[in-house]
Specification:
alpha+beta; five-stranded mixed sheet; four-stranded antiparallel sheet; 22% strand; rod-shaped
């Protein structure tokens, strides 16, 4: 029963996405009705070459009778050329026993044998081809439907406007109706941004610094930010999103989120999973998420580091709270806000080890001088 209930709960969420597809199908149906029922194709100004086999025979008969009366062979030849295949038509008619037995028609048709010649230029006008087949209009409609329908369906799943817009550098995906709560959470977190000139004077100001906030009901939470230098050079991306949910129904019960960094100079994305107390102490969940990244127990003020080949991203849990649920307190978040700060790694001078190369953490003391250097 819970499964059936869940299905009926989700129906309102996907019905609006089916509206464009339904309108497309309705348009196709109306197009077929108009093209083949209300206003079908009507051929006008047809030439002799467009006549059917029976009508071509009638045409040849008229030319034969006209020639027998006028004796104008040039005119008869010109009229037969218009058929495109007059030689075949005349030959087939003369081979017909009924015409052979007709003492009036047979000799008159015989007089056309020398005049009836193939005309490839005229015959090419009705030559069979794929584009001239009777089913071509149907294929055109279906082809247009596939192209249009494919675009409509793709745009329903991934709006084209999202693909064309510049990578976002502020709060990302938000469920409709939660914009106010999200703004308030980000505003509060913005006031508590880390002042790295004080906390990390050795490293200096980060090249990029962002705040990402998840709130209960934000079932599509998935923030991403572009890491760029002041000159606009793209270095990579970082962000945060839902990693694990528990239970059933809506809203989703998020028990873990993940923070990640992508380095344009690296082949992998480095991720750490921020878990609730419930998830962190659940061996099955930790084993399930082990492949996604290192497990971290989420706590207010927690600071951890993500490192790639040329980037270091510090992630700080600014604020968080749990929601009471069926699995007990501490099982899933009602909110969690993280701060992400990114620095490009600086290449160390020759012979001097980089103190941040392996840990990405700051040191209160400078690295020791290389052997043999003056103190």
């Amino acid at each position: 029963m819970n499964g059936v209930k869940t299905i009926f709960q989700t129906i309102p969420t996907f019905l609006p996405k089916l509206v464009p597809v339904g309108l497309l199908l309705l348009g196709l149906i109306l197009g077929f009705v108009w093209a083949y029922g209300i206003s079908p194709v009507v051929y006008t100004a047809a030439e002799p070459v467009n006549l059917g086999p029976t009508w071509k025979e009638e045409y040849v008969k008229q030319v034969a009778w006209q020639l027998s009366v006028s004796g104008d062979r040039e005119n008869a030849s010109r009229q037969l050329d218009a058929l495109g295949n007059a030689d075949k038509v005349v030959a087939e008619m003369l081979a017909n026993p009924a015409i052979q037995a007709d003492p009036n028609l047979n000799p008159r048709l015989g007089a056309l044998v020398e005049l009836a010649k193939p005309n490839e230029k005229q015959a090419a006008k009705v030559a069979s081809s794929f584009l001239k087949a009777d089913f071509t209009p149907i294929l055109c409609i279906l082809g247009l439907a596939l192209l249009t329908g494919g675009f409509v369906i793709f745009n329903t799943m991934i709006p084209i406007s999202v693909l064309l817009q510049r990578q976002q550098t502020t709060g990302g995906s938000v469920v409709s109706g939660m914009e106010k709560e999200r703004r308030e959470a980000l505003k509060a977190a913005d006031k508590n941004k880390t002042d790295f000139s004080v906390t990390a004077p050795d490293r200096g100001k980060p090249v990029a610094q962002f705040v990402s906030s998840y709130l209960l009901n934000d079932d599509v939470y998935d923030d991403s930010f572009s890491i760029e230098t002041e000159g606009g050079e793209f270095l990579g991306e970082t962000g945060a999103g839902i990693s694990k949910t528990i239970g059933t129904g809506v809203p989703k019960k998020v028990t873990a989120i993940e923070a990640w960094v992508f380095d344009k100079n690296d082949i992998k994305t480095v991720t750490k999973v921020f878990m609730s107390e419930y998830a962190f102490n659940n061996d099955a969940i930790r084993a399930e998420l082990a492949a996604r990244g290192e497990a971290v127990l989420a706590k207010p003020g927690l600071i951890t580091t993500l490192e790639t080949t040329t980037l270091t991203v510090q992630v700080r849990v600014v604020d968080m709270a749990y929601e009471s649920g069926a699995t007990g307190d501490g099982s899933f978040f009602s909110k969690i806000t993280v701060e992400l700060a990114a620095w490009p790694k600086k290449a160390p001078a020759a012979g001097i080890p980089d103190p941040y190369a392996s840990t990405g953490k700051f040191s209160a003391t400078p690295p020791p001088p290389p052997p043999g250097s003056p103190n």
